[in-house]
Amino acid sequence: MRLIPRLAVALTLLPSTLGAAPAAPADEATLGEIPVAVTGAEHVVKLAVLPSLAPDFEDVVVRGVVRRDLEISGLFALVPESLAPPGAYGFGDPVDVPAWRAAGAEVAVKVAARKNAEGTVDVVGLAYLLRHGADPVYEKRLTVPPGDVRLTAHRLTDALLGALTGRPGSFASRLAYTAPWGRARRVLTLDADGHDLRPVSPETATAVAPAFAPGARLHFSMSERYAPFSLHRDGQPPERVPLSFQESVYAAAFDRTGTKLAVAVAEPGGSAIHVGNADGTGMQRVSTTEVAIQPVWSPSGKLAWVGGGGRQGTQRVYLDGKAVSPAGFAASSPTFCDTADGIRLVFTVAVGGDRQDLVMTTERGGGITRLTQSQGSNTHPACSPDGRLLAFFSTRKSAAGPGLYVLSLERWTSSRLSSQLGESLRWAALPAAP
Question: Do 106 and 240 sit in the same domain of this protein?
């Protein structure tokens, strides 16, 4: 039996309806404690982004993007612009290291841009460790087309983070999710700083479950005129991926090597996870639960999904066929984070009151840590490509209000990227610069 798109959307985006989830879990202590950075217990590096008095649009963009990226990273305490010492801050002016050191900064970053006579844009990025001499520890000079200025600024941030921390950033990346947009549910994308939100799936179709293949090629499941959902590559128009299934394909996931594809496919009475080659050939069923959805690969090649049903009871996160989320809590939306401390599995759990929270475990499901609590419902996590940040949707009313948030997995600080809410969030690095 073919499932109509409305039911397919419910199965894909509202997994808490599967199985018999308890209305109020008995003991939330099993979800672990929220890590808190104690004030004064850690040293946060004071970083100054040099101001600019240049009126050039390109200069304003580059400096604004880099400063915002560094703020979102949560790794530094940014020095207020009001503390900038007097001086010259033009494109080619030197950095006054002693003056910035006297202003309390430990690191100084200078980024600048200007149009040249050929119509392209010259961009410069420098970083100084102010207690270690007057020479920059990072210096990069580029000439780029005007349309690449924002992306170049993100790449500068990534390189600056690599020079300052030993681990490059991943702000040159893209997020994708699904949400109602106009008259249909569509796939939308935005930059890692919340800029350039736009729908990418057709306005005449229902699209769900975005997934990135290697190289950041976007895929999603799409239905038109109540036909079964099928897998498509982003394009104008989207290109259907040939698969052998006649029923709806609810979701897909590509492994890091780009050689394996996992899909969640409708079947009588439920759905199943199938794994095969990236071109859709050689598909074999790997799940054993009545319902199996939301496949996702770990960086090491392990496969997780959400499974449940009448025989299994409450839906749980499964890893290579074994339930790893805590028993008694309806779980959904697994994702993996390749952090500096190792691979971590993050997923949502229902905590009663129609709310969900985020928890984190080791890659195999051990050592649970709670990431959110008493801040509305927090759902659909996605990890940044560098493993430092966790993006998620929150209905919280405190702080900046509901929207798309990012949480630092190193300092446990959070900031809002957008006021939008959605489902099925994914995050992938853009291809490297040529």
Answer: no
Helix then strand then coil, in percent of the chain rounded to 5, is 15, 40, 45
Tokens of 281: 């050939």
Sign of the CA dihedral 260, 270, 17, 322?
negative
What secondary structure does DSSP assign to 56-118, as a single string?
A: -HHHHHHHHHHHHHHHHH-SEEEPPGGGPPSS--STTPPP-HHHHHHTT-SEEEEEEEEE-TT
Burial class of residue 385, CB neighbours in 10 A (0-12, 13-18, 19+): buried
pLDDT per 10-residue tile (average), the chain, 434 residues:
40 42 54 57 89 90 97 96 92 94 96 96 97 92 96 98 96 98 95 97 96 94 95 95 95 96 95 96 95 97 91 83 92 96 96 91 93 94 98 92 96 94 97 83
Q: How far apart are the C-alpha atoms of 291 and 302, rounded to whole Å? A: 19
Interatomic CA distance for residues 233 and 200, integer angstroms = 11
Residues 215, 332 share a domain: yes
Q: Would the CA dihedral through 326, 327, 331, 334 be positive or negative? A: positive
In a domain, 39, yes or no: no
Domain encompassing residue 321: 5-17+173-429
Q: Which residues contact 7 (CB under 8 A, 6 or more apart)?
A: none
158 & 186 share domain: no
CA-CA distance, 389 to 191, in Å (whole number)?
14
Residue 56 CA to residue 377 CA, distance in Å, equals 42
